[in-house]
Each structure stands twice: as C-alpha cells, then as structure tokens.
Amino acid sequence: MPIFVFVYVLSVARCGELLLAGKVGNPRAAAWIAAFLAATFPIAIWQSRTYLFEFPLAALGAATIWCALATRGFTDRWRCVILGIVAGLAALSRAGGFVAIVGPAAVLFIAALRRGPWRTVALNALLAAAVAAALAATWYIPNFRALSEYIYSVTYGDRANIFAAGATRSRSPTCGRRSWRR
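The structure corresponding to this sequence follows.
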C-alpha cells in the first residue's frame, strides 16, 4: 500500500500545481499543502493501512487526472499515450474503476476541444482511450460474463436487497425483473 500512498500524494500535488499556476502566489507550496491535507484525512490514513480497492483506485484516479492535465490540452501525443496507460491501470484497479475517471476526463476533453486544434485534440484523446481500453480489455473481456452477472445480482437480482432495499419489488414493465431477462 505505500506505493499507492506515494502515487496519491504526488498526483494530488501535481494536479494542484497545474491547476493553481498563475492563480496563487506560490502554487507549488499550496499544492503540497493540499496534498498533505488529503493524505492525512482520517479515511486516507485508515485505508492506507488496510488493503481495500478504494485506495488504489483513488491513487490511480488522481494520477489519471494529473496525466490528463499534463497532456497540454490533449496536444502532446506521448503524454496522451501515458495517460492511456495510467487510465487503463485505474480501470484495472477495481471492477468498474473506469467510472471514476470517465467524468473528469470528459470535462478536460471538452475544455481542450474549445482551446486547441480540434482534430489534434480528438485524435490524441482517441489514442489515449484506445490505449486505456486495450489495457483494461485484458481483464474485462475474459471476465465480462462474471462481472455482468455480479452487477445484475447486486443491482436488481437476488442480492439487490442488501445494497438497495426494495429494488427487487418494482412492478414497472421497463424496469421489472422480467425485462432484464429478454
């Protein structure tokens, strides 16, 4: 777990430096103070001492955002490849881990489209997504059936009442139990 603590702190600090540049007097000091505060939250300390999937996902999610910010608005091709590698590792850190990085990456992509040459931005973002998908596919494709059965069982199947009380009692024709089996 110490490697994830290091990745988490470094990523939060570097994101802070990139985001605060030109906005505060000393962005590096402000960023490292923010990283120190994020790393010393009680939940971060607790999760760094036990192995849970949330901490590696948080660390790799922060590293993904750092890499996305470092691509200079998706104009640096090699940094986009590195972004794809880190995003793929974040997706592999936990089943469904890609959900944590899609939103921030989409916001950064839309902002980059507004600022940079749209063709370069779009091609480099597509390259990063392809690298991430290829890396994540090494686990998601062989385990697709088991993962989809698990997602069904905890969202609407037999174990849904553990996670969402009343989820198995819907009478809606579009959300009912029978519509999932078609």
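The two ends are 43 Å apart (CA to CA).
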